[in-house]
């Protein structure tokens, strides 16, 4: 090795002359961003790397002195604008996979979707997708060991349990109490923000997935359901299905092998209460038939429960009365010895 700038490897020496920029994927993400199966969620990882790239600031230096005089963002709006189709084409995946990956990132709390109505080139467009990045959650995903050891105050952050952005409570990664909002639109190759104005209608923003999930918890009396049946994992499955349906941006939702307008399905799901969930689970217990698509069965059962629960219990009471069971069961619920 003749020079301190020669490593002994021709390939390494050649690589040192290349200025490669762009997306960076920390190795820790393969451990912290995973699918339910336990395998790394590759689509979510590469999409997050691209989002992080766009949120990294550009240095502004003085042309004469070379001194750093400021920072600027790469996109024009206050948030990064994207569309599911754009992401799908950029990374060679399907639009469904792109959507699912963004939703998974939002469940982790590292990304937040925001839908806005904007005027683009004189034409009003609704449901324009913007992606916000939570740097505190990103840091926890990137440095999981340090995130557990170092208190937020030591890193200049907020006290434990408080989101630095909103001041609202935070429990742990993936269970944010109340993030911002949720969406879809642009063009391939660059953000569409160059054609947007800074005037947007925030009244048309939709709730985020975590807000929808929290709302469903309150709607179905989740805490009471878990108290009554703490080991019934189906309660969490129902919660997830209802949140997915109410958070869906599809025009139609499939119920009972039929594509129904999404608004109609969401309105029906908005009427589901704790009693309806208990009714559905009780009916599932009494059905010995094997379900090949259990999610589709639960979606249909939850949808139908609003119109069938009262008739079911009325029929059950009549059945018991006809068979004399009610006579032996007093108000306290204990059987009377004959």
Polypeptide structure, described:
The protein has 338 residues and is α+β, with helices and mostly antiparallel strands. It is built from 13 helices and ten strands. The strands form four sheets. A four-stranded antiparallel sheet has the order 3-5-4-8. Strand 6 and strand 7 (175-176) form a beta hairpin. The protein is elongated. Residues 150-206 and 325-338 have low confidence and may be disordered.
**Count of extended strands:** 10
* Percent of residues in helices: 40-55%
Rg on CA atoms, Å: 26 Å
Structural class: alpha+beta
Shape: elongated
Strand content: 5-15%
What is the topology, as strand order, of the major beta sheet?
A: 3-5-4-8
Distance between the termini: 101 Å
Helix count equals: 13
Which regions contain 5 or more consecutive residues with pLDDT less than 50? 150-206, 325-338
Mean pLDDT: 76
Q: SSE order, as H and E?
A: HHHEEEHHEEHHEEEHHHEEHHH
Question: What about the largest sheet?
Answer: 4 strands, antiparallel
What brief labels describe this structure?
disordered C terminus; 13 helices; 4-stranded antiparallel beta sheet; alpha+beta
């Amino acid at each position: 090795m003749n020079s301190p700038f020669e490593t002994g490897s021709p390939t390494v020496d050649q690589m040192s002359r290349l200025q490669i920029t762009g997306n960076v994927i920390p190795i820790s993400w393969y451990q912290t961003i995973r699918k339910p199966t336990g395998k790394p969620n590759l689509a979510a990882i590469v999409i997050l790397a691209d989002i992080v790239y766009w949120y990294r600031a550009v240095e502004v230096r003085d042309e004469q002195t070379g001194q750093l005089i400021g920072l600027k963002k790469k996109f024009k709006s206050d948030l990064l604008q994207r569309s599911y189709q754009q992401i799908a084409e950029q990374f060679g995946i399907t639009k469904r996979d792109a959507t699912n990956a963004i939703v998974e990132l939002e469940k982790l709390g590292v990304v937040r979707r925001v839908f806005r109505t904007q005027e683009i080139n004189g034409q009003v467009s609704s449901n324009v997708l913007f992606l916000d990045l939570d740097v505190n959650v990103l840091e926890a995903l990137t440095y999981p060991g340090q995130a557990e050891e170092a208190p937020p105050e030591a890193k200049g952050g907020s006290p434990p349990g408080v989101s630095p952005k909103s001041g609202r409570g935070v429990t742990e990664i993936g269970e944010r109490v109340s993030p911002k909002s949720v969406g879809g639109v642009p063009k391939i190759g660059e953000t569409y923000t160059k054609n947007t104005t800074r005037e947007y209608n925030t009244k048309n923003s939709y709730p985020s997935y975590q807000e929808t999930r929290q709302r469903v918890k309150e709607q179905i009396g989740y805490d009471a359901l878990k108290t009554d049946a703490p080991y019934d994992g189906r309660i969490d499955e129902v919660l997830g299905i209802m949140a997915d349906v109410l958070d869906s941006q599809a025009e139609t939702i499939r119920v009972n092998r039929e594509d129904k307008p999404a608004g109609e399905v969401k309105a029906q799901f908005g009427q589901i209460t704790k009693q309806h969930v208990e009714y559905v689970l009780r009916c599932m217990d009494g059905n010995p038939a094997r379900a090949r698509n259990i999610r589709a069965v639960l979606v249909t059962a939850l949808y139908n429960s609003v119109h069938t629960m009262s008739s079911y219990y009325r029929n059950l009471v009549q059945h018991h009365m006809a068979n004399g069971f009610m006579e032996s069961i007093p108000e306290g619920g204990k059987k009377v010895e004959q």
